[in-house]
Amino acid sequence: MRVAIGAISHETSTFTPVPTTRQDYEDRLGGLQRGQAIIDTFTGTNTPIGGFIEGAAVHGFELVPTYFAEPHPSGRTPRVLFDEILAELLAELRQAGSVDGVLLELHGSMAVEGIDDTESHVLRAVRDVVGDDVPLLAQLDIHTNMSQEMIDAADVLIGRETYPEIDMAERGRECADVLMRIVHEGLRPTMAVHRIPMLWGMNQVTAHQPMSEAIAQLHRIEALPGVVCASIATCFPLADVPCLGASVYVVTDDDVDLAQRLADELGEWIWARRAEWHFPRFTTAMTLDQLGDHPPRPLVLADRDDNTGGGSPGDSTGVLRTFLERGLRDACVLYIVDQEAVAQCLEAGEGAQIELAVGAKSSPMQGEPVLMKAQVVAVSSEGKFRYDGPMYEGLEGWMGPSAHIEQDGVHVVLVSQREQPFCTAFARTLKLNPREMSTIAVKSAAHFRAGFESWAGAVHMVSEPCVHSEWNLVYSNTGRQLYPLDEDGRYPATPGPAAHNDA
After folding, report:
1. Are residues 199 and 102 part of one domain?
2. Which of 97, 299, 344, 426 is deepest in the core (most CB within 10 A)?
């Protein structure tokens, strides 16, 4: 039995000024890869491809690796570049000859110039190559913007069930398991989707209420007779596209009516609780004031809007400025993307005292640069490291030229490549152990929790002005009204950060 695997995966913000280039595809997760290089890179890693590889080892089928492309979240991929990447995957697939199944890693919220629903475009192109009789399965991010066209193009779609998404390999393995049932047990998958007219707020950490209850409802459905699998997609809210919105999709064994009824049931359950998926937004200063002088330590503050994992530039300065103004000690910021400042640090060298302007180089909406007189604690000309998990465990990471600077007890890790701090592994390569800090700021919405929450004294979300601040977002391409947007496609005013921004 021969099974083709591959990936074209990108989380696309239509609001960010950060472009997507060929170099972005080359720079992340081993770059553009084909053939055996894919197996070499992802074997034993907590990734969807790692799960496909594990499935092959367990079930004894032959892997036919095709093409892998996954840049960091950013803006739309240029159409010419996307067409080249898709053509590469399809060429590898044709060269592979006859296969018994296809397993793909897709994201679920990729948007290309001229193509809003890129996943269905990819699935249809692959289907045209392999034909209607070859099972086509895809593993999707929990932040999928689901369309009916995606449902129609694939045999089975399986979304992740955790956020932070620590079940990437597990869901990839599930795709392999379901494929084996189709090929060897005569399983006839039928899928249905319930699209919810809602943008899901950031209250979606699956280990916490109320999201944990939604996952429990999902698992209840998955345990019912005739159900193969089911998924909740919380949507990727930074994409102004027609398929934007949360959804539930269910796969049954040759019973589409059952799939639709169960998807509708859970979708309506989620809609009835729509206010619970959102929470108030407060600035760093407001949050520190609310917590008082002795919050649980270490205190982790997540700068959720400038999350590079959502396509943001990663150089907003609100948190750093507040840390310095408040005179915090044993505090750190992970990470600020600033190639210019990094270059100054590399030129000065470790131990040097330098003056530099940090952050806010990408857009005026990111704030103003912070003028610092800092010591260069450590530098790295490459920024290579290996994730120690649980997200991307075992995979090599690359932050590019980087530096650790410190001023008056506030430590900052400056990087050249945009990436969330999934764990503390990279900071430790620059002589900074976040676990020894009293206050830690991370530019991340939730994935940081996988590597930080187990030892944090407390975790709080903060919101500072940036390109993805809700008051900067206007939706005009969704084709329908979505909760909680008003009729003009805007979020309702929020008292915290918006007031801070207007002051």
Report:
1. yes
2. 426
